[in-house]
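Marked as duplicate of an earlier ticket. Keeping the data here for the record.
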Amino acid sequence: MTAPGPRRSRLVVLAGPTAVGKGTVAADIRDHHPEVWISVSATTRRPRPGEVHGVHYWFVDDTEFDRLVAAGELLEWAQVHGAARYGTPRLAVEEKLAEGRPALLEIDLQGARQVRATMPEALFVFLKPPSWEELVRRLIGRGTESEAEQARRLETAHQELAAEPEFDETIVNHEVHAAAEELVALMKHQQESADS
């Protein structure tokens, strides 16, 4: 008789408004918790300074993104801020969950809603700014978007903040490392609950 394989893990989805720090929290987890697998999204947007293909995103052109969508290879995808498209490659997520490894998706609100439709058993965590003023400061302080893009993102952020009740848990991002540790503790608790 063979021993059973690892128990399938529960996907954790982290979403929240633009500029709340989702990517920064995910990067902190990547640096301090190698046991947590973090999905790498595909995107049609241009890389920002310091971003590495295959680490931060899979940077693809529109033709390749269209192919991924048509082939059903994305768990979710969306056009964000009326510009670039982002999507989560399905196969890698399924493989990590089957291995029983803690798996995290750091995605936008549209993507989280699509994942809820296809994987309602996932745990949905909303990352919230300490205040609206802090969110504005973070977005403008990044200096990576034009004024028009900043205005568009702030308008989107108002709508995204209203989605908090759709989520299972909320973490306030007062400080990146603390928010990351709170999320990892939540993931470990979920895994222990599933194992018991």
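See parent ticket for discussion. The beta strands are 12-15, 37-38, 41-43, 57-59, 74-79, 85-89, 103-106, 123-128, 169-172.
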